[in-house]
């Protein structure tokens, strides 16, 4: 069957295809607190109206990507209600996936955020920044190993064009240097898209998940390829901004913030976590794109925003920042949060006015 939003063919694997209705409003919305799987959303002007009447999940497509595998893991946990009570919307980038949520074309998005070999997926951090009404509500991780595939059995040494995603290319570089030294890299928007390039005769071979070979009819040349054994990628589940689910046995919290460009500002901000014993597991800097030398920071920490030490650390961090945005608190155990339970918060991040709101008041507002 064919996904009308992208033109990609989707296999019959128990994932319903995306349904988009355009041209007229076909019904009234359910109350805002209804489950996302039963909510209708009007997202565009009176001339063209998109209606999402069940859970629709945007992901990096086409079918056969590692992101799709992560999506299926979330589905198996019941994150979308009934395992088959959702549709999929394949897109070509993390930004497009989160834009679909922000724009109402999807209720959820699954995006890669961290790889144990390459580190942070910076395009996802940028996408989160670009769409301030989107929030993280869950995560999962999958093992990463690639199948090298071609249209027919060939000697890898004869490969002249090799397609894959740029991140994957770095993870199979040693195999290529040894077995296909003459191959020219052809970047693809995803590993599964690379498999389609091979199937269409636009590349000789590709590195992609095994399922991509099954879907495109390609022949495996080598399997289980990874320059670093045991590589894993972490994926997050996003939806419109909502009050976090209650804390579990193990949670993660994420924030984005900007500090004044003064000596010691970053040290002072991070000290707020250290003095309270909060485990800061990751901090990434991304340019604000306003001028050279100006950056925003993304920080992940272990704990839930309702944990006293986390709440206190975030309140203290607030007092250091020029802007700050809460990206979510979610379970990192096997049980994942399911769906948004409150109305989306459509407010854009604004410069902090420390005269009108304290850090404690900011944290309290996130829990209302």
From TrEMBL:
GO terms for molecular function: prephenate dehydratase activity. One of its GO terms (biological process) is L-phenylalanine biosynthetic process. It comes from Corynebacterium choanae. Residues 254-331 form the ACT domain. Keywords: Amino-acid biosynthesis, Aromatic amino acid biosynthesis, Lyase, Phenylalanine biosynthesis. The lineage of its organism: Bacteria, Bacillati, Actinomycetota, Actinomycetes, Mycobacteriales. Residues 335-359 are annotated as: Disordered. It is an enzyme of class 4 (lyase). It catalyses: prephenate + H(+) = 3-phenylpyruvate + CO2 + H2O. Gene3D superfamilies: 3.30.70.260, Periplasmic binding protein-like II. This is Prephenate dehydratase. Pathway: Amino-acid biosynthesis; L-phenylalanine biosynthesis; phenylpyruvate from prephenate: step 1/1. Its EC number is 4.2.1.51.
